Fold this sequence. Notes:
2 copies of one chain form a homodimer. Chain A is built from 13 helices and 7 strands. With 320 residues, the first copy, chain A, is an alpha/beta fold. Chain A folds into 2 domains: 210 residues, Rossmann fold (3-Layer(aba) Sandwich); 48 residues, no CATH class. In chain A, strand 5, helix 8 and strand 6 form a beta-alpha-beta unit. Chain A is globular. The interface between A and B is large, with 54 and 54 residues. Chains A, B: Pfam families: MeaB. Chains A, B: This is Methylmalonyl Co-A mutase-associated GTPase MeaB. Chains A, B: Keywords: Chaperone, GTP-binding, Hydrolase, Nucleotide-binding.
Amino acid sequence: MIRTVDVPALVAEARAGTSRAVGRLISLVDDQHPALPEAMAALAPHTGGAHVVGLTGAPGVGKSTTTNALVRALREQDQRVAVLAVDPSSPFSGGALLGDRIRMNESASDPGVYIRSLASRGHLGGLSVATPQAIRVLDAAGFDTILVETVGVGQSEVEIAGAADTTLVLLAPGMGDGIQAAKAGILEIGDVFVVNKADREGADSTVRDLRHMIQLGEGLTPGGWRRPVVKAAALDGTGVDEVVDAIARHLDWLATSGVLRQRRTARARDEITALVIARLRARMGDLGSGGTLQTLAAQVVDGASDPYAAAEELLTTLGV
Amino acid sequence: MIRTVDVPALVAEARAGTSRAVGRLISLVDDQHPALPEAMAALAPHTGGAHVVGLTGAPGVGKSTTTNALVRALREQDQRVAVLAVDPSSPFSGGALLGDRIRMNESASDPGVYIRSLASRGHLGGLSVATPQAIRVLDAAGFDTILVETVGVGQSEVEIAGAADTTLVLLAPGMGDGIQAAKAGILEIGDVFVVNKADREGADSTVRDLRHMIQLGEGLTPGGWRRPVVKAAALDGTGVDEVVDAIARHLDWLATSGVLRQRRTARARDEITALVIARLRARMGDLGSGGTLQTLAAQVVDGASDPYAAAEELLTTLGV
């Protein structure tokens, strides 16, 4: 049974700072609930104020510790902070991960902090559709900074990093020297690099490697922003202020250079495109059960047609 | 400059058994050459005769060794055999991997064997589009068995396994006990399981674990085929005949049960759908540069619209 949702009331409560309402709106995203388009429309006029900061890095570099340290530092500046922990490799949402967070994070009882995990639940488009929607909810609810922390590795991580205004790439000595970072494709996506666990052996050479690799790649990035490498030890707070400062400077640069608007427009394009594709896929699914796609596929199996000819025919049937 | 391609001549030569022509047709796939739709149409009437066997498993389980042993055994039965080595993690194609194969495989000079590697080259849809197309070329060229070996891990591996009639999952003692296999999602995709390196310690317990896990999952799979677990040591040929036998029995079962046609039809549906999506994406790209998508995205950024409303408008512009 589908719950009836009073969208205008929920949006008003979320905007007034009620965590429960924010949570229910993100649950609509999680469920890809039929009321979601209405909610997104109601939230739209209130979006655009938050600074979306992505955190990414291999397992073990200290992402959660860094997130917690950043939350603390941003709270000291009286910012309202939301944390979205995204796990592309897990089909479970809001559960164990969130529990870990509550244990770890003394901010859990602070009303100026909202923490939520989001996981792929196998719905159409998965996290690449759900993550920007959840960000929209938090943005409209008035959080100043939204930290999007991705768990896990791979292509999806890179995609989700694309949802942020500023992307923080975390490395640790010995795990991620420059070459390894380049191979993992994370040099391209980072706006600020943090070498965490700076008390460990090899931290300085990791910083040096990384600066070198970044310099080599400099010609490839849009000019004007020199991507900093910050040494930190998030566990005891070393370097955290420098990280917060680098994030703030990046936002300034984004805003004054006009890159912020460019990035957000590109993201909106991706979001619209993903929704159009999902809609068309659903329509093709209907044609499949209706028989057209099934008939075409059988013709391909029989050698009476080929996939290209069948695709053309399906496009005609779709009326495109 | 785009080469002119004499498609009918190429197809005739490939059907006559000329390796060079087969290679040029697969290069059309690799390049997503404009002549590809014409080639696919010309090949279509000749497809459907090959048994497509996917090989998958974590790095180090001995995939190449097993592939080579299978090629040898199938050649002894006078089959013509093609090997397609698919590497989703590499942007390079036909190069180093192929070189390794030639060194390793004494069959390289045998005209009854064709070996080719295929890699993601960043084109639309990537290997999920290119792999079934390369299989079509080899199928129409008259190979009896096409071994599709995937290198690398993850979701793409599962997708590519979907291109096969029969999927062989390889494990090695100590690396892949049943629970690990279940976590990796490979229990669902296997039709035949091979525990390779059977001379190693722990082989028997891996086989036992695996049989147990398969039994637990039995209720979830379409009835009639009891998925065998074969112990092998491909390096010295132990168990290879049993593997070949299991593959042949699976093909018999597929054919008599009607599942072969079902699977191939489902695959053709996926292939058609992927091409339709690629076509629509290209068209949306045109709209993007034409301004419609860009204008809608800017409205979303300004909060004047939301992604759902924008998607609806774009669908209207697309004429859907």
